Structures are given as C-alpha cells and as structure tokens.
Amino acid sequence: MHRFCRVQQADFDPAALQAALLAGSGGGEAAGAVATFTGLVRRPPGDEAFTGLTIEHYPGMTERAVEAILDDAAQRWSLLAIGVVHRIGELAPGARIVWVGAAAAHRGDAFAACEFTMDYLKTRAPFWKKEHWAGEARWVEARRGDLDRAARWAGAADTTTASRQE
Amino acid sequence: MHRFCRVQQADFDPAALQAALLAGSGGGEAAGAVATFTGLVRRPPGDEAFTGLTIEHYPGMTERAVEAILDDAAQRWSLLAIGVVHRIGELAPGARIVWVGAAAAHRGDAFAACEFTMDYLKTRAPFWKKEHWAGEARWVEARRGDLDRAARWAGAADTTTASRQE
Amino acid sequence: MRVLFFASVRERLGTAECEFDGEALPADLDALREALAARGDAFREVLAQPNLVCAVNQAVVHGNAALGPGDEVAFFPPVTGG
Amino acid sequence: MRVLFFASVRERLGTAECEFDGEALPADLDALREALAARGDAFREVLAQPNLVCAVNQAVVHGNAALGPGDEVAFFPPVTGG
Q1: By 3-state DSSP, what share of chain B in percent is helix, strand and coil, each rounded to 5?
Q2: What is the mean pLDDT of each run of 10 residues along chain D (82 residues)?
Q3: Among chain A residues, CA nearest to D53
Q4: Which of D51, D58, D78 faces A64 most closely, judged by CB atoms?
Q5: If you write DSSP's letter for every residue of D17-81 in order, what string do you get?
Q6: Closest Cα of chain A to B162: distance in Å?
Q7: Would you call D79 and A125 a contact, using CB atoms and an 8 Å cutoff?
Q8: Residues in chain B closer than 8 A to A28 (CB atoms)
Q9: Is the CB of B37 less than 8 angstroms away from the CB of A39?
Q10: Most buried of A90, B52, B127, B154, CB within 10 angstroms?
Q11: From residue A93, how far is each of A48, B16, B92 by CA, in Å?
Q12: Facing residue for C77 by CB, picked from B118, B128, B143
C-alpha cells in the first residue's frame, strides 16, 4: 500500500495530492474510490478582528503519531493508498491546514479511512492551534466533540463489515 | 447554500470542482471543511479482458433525483455548498465516473453529507452501468450492500447531533 | 402518453419507448401493464421481473396509479450508478 | 535528558526545553516532575493541570515511567490540530 505523510509550512495542492494518491494505487485502474478531506482556517461568523492561526507541532513525534494513525487505518480497511499533509506556522483565514486522502477498491473503505484519519489526527497528533485577533491571541482548547468522534472508531466493526460486502 | 448538479459525457476536473465549491461557500472564509469523493472505473483484479463501462441514464429524471438528494442533504446537515457531477456514456478503466463534494463549517457535516449523497446516488438516481469485456457485455446488478449503506441514513440522527456539537 | 424503457429492460424489449393515445390510452398503470403484456413474450417477461422499477412523470411509483394523456411512464431495472 | 515544552505550556513556562544530567538526572517521571516543580510557581501550576499530557521518547505515557540519560520527555496540553 502506498502512503505519505508530510508536515510542512508551505501550502499544498489538493489536485496534485489526489493525483499522487492515484499514481500510488496500483497504476490507477485498481482504485474505484477516492475520498479526500481538506481542512481550512475558518473565520468565526462575523468576527472581523480574526486574523488567523498559528500551528505549533512537536517535530519527530508528529510524524510518528501520523504514521501510527496510517498504520491503524491500513489495518482496519482495505486501502490502496493513503496520505496526509498538515501545515504548520502562520495561516490566514481561508488557508488550507490539512489534507487527508484515501484510495480503495470500494467507497466504504475510502470514506471510513479518510474520516478515521481526520478524527485521530485531531486527537492524537501533537499539533496545537493558536487563534489570533487584532491585539489578542488564544490557544484553542481541545473539544469534547473531537474526542467523542474519535471514540466512535473503537467499535468500528460495523463500518468495516459493511464495506467488505460491496 | 450553493449547489450544483451536472450530468455529462465529458470528463471533469476534481480540482476545479473543489474550487467552485469553495467559491460558493461564502467567500471561502466560512468553510472549515471540504469532503470530496471521486468514483473511478475499476478494473476487476487480474481481469485483462475488461475494457470499461457504459453508463446509461434517464434524462430529466436523473437531474430531479439528484436535486432531491441534495435537498435532503441540505436539510440533514449544516452545509455551505454541495455539488455532484456524474458522467454518462463510454468510460475506460481508470476513468472518473462521479464526483461529490460538500463544504461546511465543521467536518462532521461535510463528511456525512458527502457519504450520504454517494449512498443515495447509488440507490436512487436512474443511472445504469454496463460492463464490457472483449466480446462480451453485462449489465451491472444492483448490490445488496449499496441498499444496506443507504438504509443506514434512515437513523442518522446520531451523526447530525455529533457534528452539531463541534 | 410516452412509455420509456431503460438499460436491460430496453435491450430485452428491443425498443426505448412507445406511445399510447386516443382510445388505446390506459386509465392507470395496471391497464398499461396489461396493454404492454399483450405485445408478446419479451414484454410479459420484463413485467414479471420482481425488482422492475416504474416511474410516472419521473418519480418512482409502487403499485397502481391513475394515468392521463400527458403522462410519462418509465420501466427500468434497479439503478446502478455512482 | 532533554525535557521539552509545547504550546500553552511552553508559553506559561517561558522556555521550550531544559536539560538534566549527571547527578541531577531523575530516575523516573515522578522524580522529574518533582525536580521541575522545585523551579517555581509556573512549573507547579503547569504540572497541576489535570489534562497535561506527558510523552517519553515521543510516545504518550500515563502515570510513572523509568527514565534514562538519553531519554526525551515532553509536556504539553491536549492536542488541537487537524
């Protein structure tokens, strides 16, 4: 199975990443499904003073954590390729933060692996977001909802079974 | 909410579609999440004689059915934009068949709307696939697994609730 | 009234559509099915398919339904797109 | 032994890392926490955070764990990437 994990300051091109994913999927004729997710810096509604995010990470541990998540995804679903790109540093409103893509023979595997990887990235990879406003900055607090979403995968046998039936 | 539905013979560019989705999402700073799915003509493993698919559809009803699915998705989740492109006609192995993209403030809504739309497209929109081999052709039979996947959304309140908590 | 056939149904019947009007116009779906069945074995076979789908004016219909002169009826197998 | 601090923890402490070696080397995480707490209020406050995460050699550790001279320990708040 083809996989990649990049942690970088530079922006990325979702189209090029999707092409890389397919190029790694057994020549491009084995994949029937590609699911992708792109996360962006969202301006809170009506919050004109918001100037963006900075993202800090733990070099070394980040890559290990992401690789462990990809290992886990590859164990849980039948995948042809999976990739993650996560940006660090200063990001303006509207900027891309993260991309996850999964290619599989069947869509159940691609969807589940993509969403699982995002849920685990949010709760297991050492990145921290700080929000900035004109004259103020605040570290983002971890969200209960993200932990709940990640916890769903502890009992993910249903999803796997459904996708194997296709 | 911005939306689009295209049924066409021509290939499509996932990058351009994702850009169109974001352009329709309140200027691009309101969206925090974009989930996409691309379906491709998969060559059955080891099946060298397979030459591709033809896809037939019911003009008029197809567009109505897709619009009804997008209405449903827009009711179920908080979306900024959603779009579908589905190709018809002759498609070679590796060719793109279908694209679904959903943009939302939060990822739970984007993921769920994208997967829901695919599951309903598979079971409610009047498209039919015919598989071709050297010297043989066969209409694809509807899959029990696709009906099961679509049926999951009948009790989708959990997903909606989880995504609203973010 | 236009009656359309798609995919394997269209191929089995060897035709993509037919028309009913004037005195031959069926009053409802059951009457239409009867009129079609009278056209021969291929029609009878298709109409006997347990999973055959019927749409009236581009919306799926189960069971019987009244029909009028401007209606569009379609018969097709379970969908397999996406 | 390197000890690293990230995000709000790093800012609260005003430092991104510190070193322990020779006789000052803590034998385990509990000893390390004690040695850090002795450095003042900011350290004590951070170490008292109920959701503080600790990693040894880049793997999250709960409770105590033995430490050696080449180990890398990190303290940080719950992660918020993605």
Answers
A1: 40, 30, 25
A2: 98 97 94 97 97 98 96 98 96
A3: A126
A4: D58
A5: EEE--GGG--SBHHHHHHHHHTT-HHHHHHHT-TT-EEEETTEEE-S--B--TT-EEEEEPPP--
A6: 7
A7: yes
A8: 40, 94
A9: no
A10: B127
A11: 11, 21, 40
A12: B128
A33 forms beta bridges with A104, B39
What distance in Å separates the CA atoms of residue D44 and residue A3, rounded to the nearest whole number?
A: 42
Chains C and D touch (3+ CB pairs under 8 A): no
What span, in angstroms and rounded, lies between the C-alpha atoms of D41 and D34?
Answer: 12
Within 8 A by CB and 6+ apart from A23, the residues are none
Nearest to B12 by CA among B130, B97, B81, B92: B97
DSSP state for residue B30 in the 8-state scheme: S
Q: Which of A29, A107, A148 sits opposite B37 (nearest CB)?
A: A107
Q: B41 and A32 in contact by Cβ < 8 A?
A: yes
Of B37, B105, B165, the CB nearest to A42: B105
Quick: pLDDT tens for B50-60: 999 999 999 99
* A78-94: burial string, b at 16+ Cβ within 10 Å, e else: bbbbbbbbbbbeebebb
What pLDDT digit, counting tens, does each position of B26-72 carry? 877 999 999 999 999 999 999 999 999 999 999 999 999 999 999 99
**Span C16-45, pLDDT tens digits:** 999 999 989 999 999 999 999 999 999 999
